[in-house]
Amino acid sequence: MNKEMSESDPQPSSQPPELLDRKKRAEKIIGEPGKYKVCEGCESIVVAKATTCPSCHGYRFDESPERVITQAKLLGSRPATTVSWQDYL
Ligand SMILES: [Zn+2]
């Protein structure tokens, strides 16, 4: 019973859903860099209409598309592994 269930479930075990989600978000940001900006305080990507950073409450942003794309690629390729590590420590 369990075997059949796992076989019918096409989930890739190599990539956690969170990483896939991050990749999708990164691709979306890279496709529309004008809708986002990068926080100068914590390097988070926030929507362009945000007035302060939801992470660090900073108000200085880099709105250049190149910076946004660079940061999105970074976030997409570097998933929450560092956070997971800290969870295990
Ligand atoms: Zn910030």
3D architecture notes:
The protein has 89 residues and is mainly alpha-helical. It has a domain of 46 residues. It has a three-stranded antiparallel sheet with strand order 2-1-3, covered by helices on one side. A hairpin with a 5-residue loop joins strand 1 and strand 2. Helix 2 runs antiparallel to helix 3. The termini are far apart. The C terminus is likely disordered. Bound molecules: zinc ion. Zinc ion (ZN) binds next to loops.
Topology record:
Blueprint: H1 2-8, H2 17-31, E1 36-39, E2 45-47, E3 61-62, H3 65-77, H4 81-88
Antiparallel strand pairs: 1-2, 1-3
The structure holds zinc ion (ZN).
Query: Could you describe the largest sheet, including whether it forms a barrel?
Result: 3 strands, antiparallel
* End-to-end gap: 36 Å
Shape estimate:
elongated
Number of strand elements: 3
The mean pLDDT is: 81
List the total number of helices.
Answer: 4
The helix fraction, in percent, is: 40-55%
In the sheet with the most strands, the strands line up as 2-1-3
Order of helices and strands: HHEEEHH
User: Which range does the strand content fall in?
Assistant: 5-15%
Q: Could you say which structural class the secondary elements and strand pairing correspond to?
A: mainly alpha
Sequence stretches where pLDDT stays below 50 over 5 or more residues: 82-89
Small molecules bound in the structure, each named once: zinc ion
Whole-angstrom Rg: 17 Å
